Amino acid sequence: MSPDSQKQLVVTTDVLVDGVHFSDVTTPPHSVGWRAIAANLSDLAAMGASPLAVTVGLALDGELSVDWVEQMYQGMSSILAEHNTAIVGGDICRSSVTTVSITALGQVSPKHIIRRSTAQPGELIVVTGDHGMSRGGLELLLNPSLGTNLPQQQRDIFLSAHQYPQPRLDLLRYLWEIMETTVITGMDSSDGLGDAVLQICASSGVGAQIQLSSLSSVSMISQWFSAEQALNWVLYGGEDFELVLCLAEEKAKKLVEIVGKEAKIIGKVVEEKSVILMDGNQQKSLNLAQSFQHFS
Amino acid sequence: MSPDSQKQLVVTTDVLVDGVHFSDVTTPPHSVGWRAIAANLSDLAAMGASPLAVTVGLALDGELSVDWVEQMYQGMSSILAEHNTAIVGGDICRSSVTTVSITALGQVSPKHIIRRSTAQPGELIVVTGDHGMSRGGLELLLNPSLGTNLPQQQRDIFLSAHQYPQPRLDLLRYLWEIMETTVITGMDSSDGLGDAVLQICASSGVGAQIQLSSLSSVSMISQWFSAEQALNWVLYGGEDFELVLCLAEEKAKKLVEIVGKEAKIIGKVVEEKSVILMDGNQQKSLNLAQSFQHFS
Question: Do B1 and A8 touch (CB under 8 A)?
């Protein structure tokens, strides 16, 4: 492996445990492999880095079938092929609990590194896609009695969001172009949209105002689930693997135009160091415990 | 992280599972951390590569104490500090079985890469240290009734070999110097000395003759354990993390001189594709199943 000498090497690791991050009920083996890789590629995208290679460490329950393992590898291979990336190392051993550890290597030009700590008051906050969908898919898989009025096509969108998330490496070339002239701050929303906004604000020493009306998936999800579930999933569901980005107004609007209809401006960076969800006249504060504070 | 642009990036992964690779009985947490890192650094040494950085993926049993985790990190830090290497990424999650996944990144000049596939008949086989010691230490820890006649100092050598193995990164500068003029073929003995010789032979399309009399730890271990145990541990015990190297006669002798008394020439590479253990007039074949074939 020979990284570009002008670029910086970045590395990211994720550990997925059977019964915690996946299960027979929610994740067929092909999806386990896909999601494990997707999580790491999304970490790279969040840093502005393109993937170089991955390593795979497997601790496998001895009762798993060879078929299970093969399908999991196929899931890994499918998503890696989409991003021209190879498995360059690994280790397999036996355990009583199947555990999948992925380390991804990426590279990025120093001027294209996306950090969490550089957001400035006045910048707009852009999400590159819908949130709450992965969590919705998970809930549908865990509770088959849920969402019986869901059209099959819509159900498939939820399930696919959970089982086959797409890391936003496709956006890197646009982000790099914008970064020729402007700073972009951001991270991915793997731990939830609320968490991403809070972490960016904490790292940058700023606050944020999020417009509830701009979170279009809240009203969409509310068609089939309660409004409370919808808001909870959108803000705290996690694993949608979109990017949450802060950048100057003009560039933010340009980015949303390029990415297309799923991308939205959801709010703005402010000086006051709290994260406020604006719902008409009412304000909610988001906190790091991933639950709501009462309306203030 | 900015690797040297003239060097190749290499990467290695190891997964260690509680109850399989370590346990409360055999491995205090400090040693768990040390060994997990040692295994990966040894993989780098076996490729001729110096370490750049590691990532640590932890799936932790929720009943582990914070103290256990801190001590394990201290074990990692101790050995990493000795090799000027930092942890640059990681992930922690909960599991019912503690699993430690380490990925190490290293770099190596193309001309200094040690491969398994380049051994030539006529070359000598060098080991950089004693074998069977780690397995001996493990047995002493598992069976306190064993080796009651062992002097304490000797017992400590066995235990230390198991709990605090030393990856042979210290030898790289000598190996690189020799490789300016000669090919060195090799790997580490993490899966056993016998396995290393067999893998090198299989990759290189050659065979080997090993002199039992040159395996000095066999007679040493036989002082306190049975001769059969001694030979078994030396050939198949594993986790001694020494290097097993094939190189031209003159250079092999020079290497042994540089490394010092623990290093030994243990045999030679031959054209005939079998691995023979020479015991006076008798020959044993080693096989990949890590057990003896009967005397032929």
Answer: yes
